[in-house]
DNA sequence: TTAGGGTTAG
């Protein structure tokens, strides 16, 4: 983790390809105040390295505040390696230093285990630095449920639980683990609640299926900011209640709260869910009329998805073509959009273009590609794409991909091949898959196979009303409505 | 006299 910090020197800026000169040149005399100001203002690693070099030359690197600022700046510029290295070189780091390095690691999921181990090191250190509420709230951010529970105990024992940051962080640990009851208990016992804390509780409910409970907390919030609104709107979207999501969005605008990108993502998803094309268009023009010159990939993709789901493929394509730096999710939205509306040729062409540009597909890409093959009856291509998932792209087919294949083979009348595919799957087929196969049996008059599957489904108690309808259709067609009733 | 919470697409 801790790499060797390149000891910066002023001459390091005069290497083979020198970076552009920093905005401020460090002069021969450097006071601690001036250095602190320079560190706070810097925005580039190059400049920070130069300041670091100057601190070393002036012997100011021992100053704990400057050392602290330097370490924090390395981290905030995304150079956790430099930050860690500096920390490792610091003798007897104080609680500020420990907290700062723990916090820097807690900011990115990939470094969470390290944040926790730093906290453990801090406690076991010979110089035993005592954590405070700042340390605790930082380390809690990186915690999964088990160490989180222990730290909750720790916070109670040390009396930090009354701190609103610590309380919120503990609440968040339980929320992330889906333990709504424990989160609510922490919430109820908090002596004071900030907007952030209220939002954390709303998020906890919204993410764990309790959108009405979320709403109850939301209604009790006095001054709501955009995050609070976003959480509530997205909560409705995630629970498949787009009408209420859009209602909340209207109320948010009426309350003069300025929407952010996150708001647009949720609202566009709500429009997509109910096929509200006009509302989607309105959001699109709102985005364009409110200072958003260049669509972000996220918002662009949400627009593509909304237009596709609302059936306006031309609008979707127009937005898609305008997205700068398209990632695979953007490509997927357009490919799947085309495929779902039967524009197989466009979907396949787009896939070919995406590959040509070196974008690596995901399992969603193959949902699109295989559906396109299915709609167009391209059996050979479909088989080949399905095979390539594993062989070429190392993507394990999911049940949905088998569904596409069964649909493709079934429509083409290749029932035996489809049945074999289902029987040899590594996972259990679900009712949707059996339903697809049954529908194909009916379409091609393969009553015997239909009966076989039907019998098996009924015997294993798996048949539901949908499959029963299909079954009765099959039996009606065979003129033998009773056979399957054993 | 230097630090810490909540929301993000297919």
TrEMBL record:
Composition skew (Low complexity), residue ranges: 1-16
UniProt keyword Repeat, yes or no: yes
Domain of life: Eukaryota
Ranges for the PPR repeats: 163-197, 225-259, 327-361
Record key words, sorted: Repeat
InterPro entries: PPR_At4g14850-like_plant, PPR_rpt, TPR-like_helical_dom_sf
UniProt GO molecular function: RNA binding
Claim: Ribosomal protein is one of the keywords in the record: no
UniProt record, GO biological process: RNA modification
NCBIfam families: PPR (TIGR00756)
Protein name per UniProt: Pentatricopeptide repeat-containing protein
Organism for this UniProt entry: Stephania cephalantha
